[in-house]
Write a structure and sequence with these properties.
430 residues; alpha/beta; Cobalt-precorrin-4 Transmethylase, domain 1; Methyltransferase, Cobalt-precorrin-4 Transmethylase, Domain 2; Rossmann fold; 3 domains; five-stranded parallel beta sheet; 12 helices; 26% helix
């Protein structure tokens, strides 16, 4: 049997464990701070020299690289010896339980969770966290955490080297978010829970005691009652009718075109999507509704204000960058997962080329003019994307006098898309 004990956020005293240590442990595994905390409560012979140990003694293993530790645990398990693993907080929450269950099977584990650092941090602020998105940046690409912080009003980030408060602050400088840096949670002498601006976070050396960072939009930190925890459920519908947005004249991507564009963009939580030549921002808003961080690039002042209004009316965050592409794209430091390019103009091939070079997954281009299709397609393929497209021509039901109905044709639109990798027969990007 492997007993896994969560030490709580403090891991400074045995009182922070939810249950006492097992009466007998042949192998005790944990970080040095965990072992130091429980060592006074081990049997007297626990610290005997390794060559004098018997099966009734306890051997300590300081947790470093995971693979060798799992091999040592396996050796004890094969010999029928009890193992205890110490971990921080709830070890089933982004913790070691996953690795242990994968190697030994969940039936061999006796998990005794402590209070997670996420729960402890929110408790210090007096905030509920059933509506919080929790993301780990420890040993992972921090861009997913950054994009979630941009898109959602309440995010807990489990930090790591290269993805701490300073790095998050630098990436979120333009968001207006509040970062709450929680350090040494549970330690009565060293605990600090500090609300700071992203700029303040970026300017400091936070040391090694940071437990996690909360990213909050304080205007929306308290929402209504939740039924499903974490990321909100996907919206009930997308490809919303044009009437769901404010727009000028007919300058909006029609819902039929938007439906296919969204299918090829495939926006989701952790993604970053650009809407270039955004107009009303309808594509950016829909991507944000589906959980992605969205940037709308629009050259006109009234268009930029219209996009902000549309985003606010749908309860999502869209970063609006006012400027003309392709020049305005140079100021966007983070490469997007997907890009939608609307509108036209002589600069279209250059705009598509810039977007195709930087997009990690997909570029979708909507065109009304036939003679611009070849140049846009060439820009996608020259960047190494696999290009495809379709001409969309739809007719909508329209009433006529006498309670009869006709078909009213909409203007045809070419939709081109380029994918960074081929699509499987099931339609999944590989």
């Amino acid at each position: 049997m492997i007993t896994v004990i969560g030490m709580g956020p403090a891991h400074t005293a045995p009182a922070h464990t939810p249950t006492p240590l097992p009466e007998r442990t042949a192998l005790l595994v944990g970080a040095r701070r965990h072992l130091d905390a429980v060592r006074p409560h081990l049997p007297a012979n626990a610290n005997a020299a390794p060559d004098t140990h018997t099966d009734t003694d306890t051997t300590e293993l300081v947790l470093g690289p995971l693979a060798p530790a799992l091999d040592t645990i396996a050796d004890h398990v094969d010999r029928g010896l009890p193992v205890t693993v110490l971990a921080s907080g709830d070890p089933g929450f982004f913790g070691i339980v996953r690795a242990l269950a994968d190697r030994f099977g969940p039936g061999l584990l006796d998990v005794r969770p402590g209070v997670s650092s996420v729960a402890a941090a929110f408790s210090r602020l007096g905030l509920p966290w059933d509506d919080a998105v929790v993301v780990s940046a420890h040993g992972r690409d921090p861009r997913t955490a950054v994009n979630l912080c941009r898109a959602h009003p309440k995010v807990a980030v489990l930090t790591g080297p290269g993805a701490g408060p300073a790095e998050l602050g630098a990436a979120l400088a333009d968001t207006g978010r509040t970062l709450v840096v929680a350090s040494a949670l549970g330690d009565p002498e060293r605990e600090r829970v500090e609300p700071v601006t992203p700029a303040e976070a970026a300017a400091r050396d936070w040391g090694t005691a940071v437990s996690l960072v909360l990213c909050l939009d304080e205007r929306r930190a308290l929402g209504g009652a939740r039924t499903v925890a974490g990321i909100p459920a996907r919206p009930a519908g997308w490809a919303l009718p044009e009437e769901a947005f404010a727009f000028r004249d007919s300058m909006i991507t029609k819902f039929e075109v938007r439906a296919l564009a969204l299918a090829r963009l495939a926006p989701g939580p952790g993604d970053l999507v650009w809407d270039v030549g955004a107009g009303s921002g309808s594509v950016a808003v829909e991507c944000a509704r589906l959980g992605a961080a969205a940037v709308a690039v629009e050259k006109d002042l009234d268009g930029a204000e219209r996009i902000r209004g549309n985003a606010a009316s749908h309860g999502v965050d869209v970063r609006v960058v006012r400027g003309a592409a392709p020049g305005a794209l140079a100021g966007l430091a983070d490469d997007p997962d997907a890009v939608f390019v609307g509108g036209g103009g002589r600069e279209l091939p250059e705009i598509v080329a810039v977007c195709a070079r930087r997009a990690r997954r997909a570029v979708v281009v909507a065109l009304a003019a036939l003679d611009r299709v070849p140049a846009a397609r060439a820009a996608l393929t020259d960047a190494g994307l696999v290009c495809d497209g379709v001409l969309l021509q739809s007719s909508r039901l329209a009433p006529l006098p006498g309670e009869v109905t006709r078909l009213a044709a909409t203007n045809p639109v070419f939709l081109l898309w380029g994918l960074r990798t081929p699509v499987s027969s099931e339609g999944v990007v590989q």
